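I would love for you to help me understand the pair of lines that follows before we discuss the fold together.
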Amino acid sequence: MKFLLVLLVLWLFGRYVVPLLMRIILRHLLKKQAQRFGQPFGGSPFAGQPHARNGQPPTGEVQVEYVPPRSTPRKPTEFKGGEYVEFEEVK
């Protein structure tokens, strides 16, 4: 009876507690590695979006200052059909 109780406790521990501990440990290690990776580049991936400095967009962002207006709106052309191509079966 004592053997079955120990087996049940070990099974419950392995089923519910070990995955929870592994998630916590893995999350901690991943955050630590991400912070270590981000240091040479001046930041951490978990720090959020960089803020604009002196009215300029952050590095790597594209800013479009001028978009030329369209001359006339395009109308979709009607499909008038294609040409007929005869099919020959090749054996």
